Input
Amino acid sequence: MAKEKILFDPKSKGSLVKRVLVSDRPDGFRPASGRVGQKILSLLSSGPKYPAEMARALDAHHQTVYYHIGRLEKAGLISRVRSEQIRGGEANLFALASDGYAVEFPVKGEQMPTLRSSSRSKALGRFFREFLVDGEFDGCIVVGSPLQHGEAGTQARDGHYAVQLGFALGQFVTLPSKFPVKLDVDLRAEKLMASNLLIVGGPRTNVVAEELNPHLKVRFSQGGFWGSIVDDGGKTYGSEFDCIVEKVKNPWDPSKTCIIAAGLTGAGTKAAIIGVCNFPDALFQNYRAGDFVALLRGIDRDGDGKVDSVDVLKLL
Output
C-alpha cells in the first residue's frame, strides 16, 4: 500500500517540498503507466476536472476515460473532490490525490537536517497558494490602523492577531525582504490595492475590509454599525464570536486574490485567525481552487474565558 511522504529538493528556490505517494512496488502504480492514464494525470496537474472535460481534452470516448479514471481512483492516484447532480445525472469532480508518486527501494537513505515544515498542513498551503510563490510571500497583510480613522473614527485593536498568521505562513516562505504588513489607511496611498491581500479584521476597524465587503458572498451588514453577518441565504448571525474566512478575486485586480479573516468584534476576528491557523485541515480539506467561504463561531473549549477553538456554521 502506498504511503504519502515528503519529497525534498535542496536545490530548489526556497527549498520547496512536494508530497508524493511512495510504494516499494511499482504494481500499485500500473494504471498510471498507460498512455491514457498518463494524460489524465497530466490534465489534473493543472487543477480538478470533470470526466467530460477530460474526455474533450483528450478527444477520447467518455467510457474510455471513465474506465481509466476508475483504475486511477482505485490505485489511490486520484480522488473525488465532490459530486453534483447535473441534468439528472451525477457528475464527479476529480483531483490528484498527491503531488506525485514514486517507487522506493530498500536502501539506506542520506542523513538530512530535520525539516520543521514537514508537518505543515498541505490544506493550508493549498488555500494560500496565490500568496506562496517560489518560497516567498507574494502580497500584503492588511491590518486596521490603531489611530482613529474611517467615517466612524474607530481604532483597531486586532492587528496583533496577524502575528499568528505570520507563524502559520512562515512554514512555507522565507523571511520577506520587503515588509508585507500594511495599515489599511496606507494601502491605497502606497497604490497596493491591486495586490494579493490578506485582510485581518472586519469593516468596523479596517477600511479595506469595508471596501471589500460588497464583493463578498457572506458579508457584514451595515445596520447597527456592522452589527451582524449575513449569509448567502439572508440569514443573520449576531454573536460577538461570529466570523468569516472568505477568499475572493481582488475587485481592484481580478488576477489577484483577497482573503479576509474577520469577525464582528475583536473576539470574532481572533476566532477567524484561530480557525485558519489552528484548524486548516478541518476548514480547507476539500478546497482545491476558486472562491471559498467559512462562517465560523468562536468557542471557549477549556473554560478559561478566552476563545480557543471554532465551530463551523457554514462552508461554501
